[in-house]
Specification:
332 residues, alpha/beta, Cytidine Deaminase, domain 2, Dihydrofolate Reductase, subunit A, 10 helices, 13 strands, elongated, binds ligand AOF, binds zinc ion
Length: 332
């Protein structure tokens, strides 16, 4: 049943301030009588969405299976723990603990009201599915993905600065899909000036995904307003600062929980130097161009023993390229 609830959770948006949550209601014989999921900030939570599908109320002895501990707070909507108690539910089973300060402790409210609570069912799987939101909540800053495309000799552009196209079609499609599932794309002013990127999320047929992340240009350099990043295809802000912590705080306040840093080397190096990243995505093309244009420049490391240690958590072939996902090594 929890597997089903986890599937339902994925029907909601991956971007935005709120987590993806799924819920199902079972009758006393453990038949599914309602399913619900969260459709984004400001809409009903998964539990309430599921309850709303039972206009005649919850039958005796019913169980709610939820992927996240029911909330305990009144935010944009009311507390789910109370909604479940008032519905007359007998038992609540959940997977992940809610890391929020305000919203947490729904399980205590449920127990105090005499509801049976079973916690931690498929917790590891659920935590993995919601790693972006859970990490953001724990760190109180957006989850940070760094991404670049590079040649086999680790170059991101030729000496004349051209970089189109290092990676192949499949890699680019993968990037666009990822863009459509997060809140903001960050680039430095240099990248905007030299590459003139569009930074929208486009489907393989060239049309735009329904959700477009905010395009965030970071840096003090003034930019011509006819650059593509300022077109009407998606929203854009130019934050005239070099302080990436300020940038993250600004985006957090706007409800953003997942950002993608797309370059250039100066911006990526700044995030790495400050230890501000949760994963790195590399699209490695079978090309050699030599020269000095690399993805990461100065990150304050001068000797091998200080090297930042990462761990490859995913490696796959994407068309002619190799896709690598790496995360900071535990304890480093
Ligand atoms: C969700 N969907 O299905 C559950 C959530 O301010 P609100 O009302 O939007 O509440 C957001 C918080 O509620 C969220 O941070 C999480 O702690 C909790 N549970 N949130 O968006 C849901 N169950
Ligand atoms: Zn809730």
């Amino acid at each position: 049943m929890m597997h089903r609830a986890l599937e339902l959770a994925l029907l909601g948006p991956a971007y935005g301030a709120n987590p993806q949550v799924g819920a199902i209601i079972l009758d006393k014989d453990l038949n599914i009588i309602a399913e619900g999921w969260h459709k984004g900030a400001g809409t009903a939570h998964a539990e309430v969405d599921a309850l709303s599908k039972l206009p005649n109320g919850v039958p005796e002895g019913a169980t709610a299976v939820v992927t996240l501990e029911p909330c305990n707070h009144t935010g944009r909507t009311g507390p789910c723990a109370v909604a479940l108690i008032e519905s007359g539910i007998s038992r609540v089973v959940y997977a992940s603990k809610d890391p929020g300060n305000e919203s947490a402790n729904g399980s205590k409210t449920l127990l105090d009201a005499g509801v049976e609570v079973i916690q931690g069912v498929l917790e590891e799987e659920a935590d993995k599915q919601s790693v972006v939101w859970l990490t953001a909540m724990k760190k109180q800053r957006p989850y940070i993905t760094l991404k670049w495309a590079q040649t086999l000799d680790g170059r991101t552009a030729a000496s004349d600065k051209t970089s189109k196209w290092i990676s192949g079609t499949e890699s680019r499609e993968d990037v666009h899909l990822r863009r459509s599932q997060l809140d903001a794309i960050l680039v430095g002013t240099g990248t905007v000036k030299y590459d003139n990127p569009d930074l929208t999320a486009r489907k393989p047929d060239g049309t735009r995904y329904e959700h477009q992340p905010l395009r965030v240009v970071v840096g003090n350099t003034e930019l011509a307003q006819d650059l593509r990043v300022f077109n009407e295809d998606a929203p854009t802000v130019h934050l005239k600062t070099h302080d990436v912590k300020d940038v993250l705080a600004h985006l957090w306040d706007r409800g953003m929980r997942h950002v993608l840093v797309e370059g250039g080397a100066q911006l990526a190096s700044e995030f790495i130097s400050l230890g501000l990243f949760d994963e790195i995505l590399i699209y490695q093309a079978p090309l050699l161009i030599g020269g000095t244009n690399v993805a990461v420049t100065e990150i304050g490391i001068s000797t091998m023993k200080d090297a930042l240690a990462l761990e490859f958590v995913e490696i796959k072939k994407l068309g002619p390229d190799v896709f690598i996902r790496a995360i900071p090594k535990e304890g480093s």
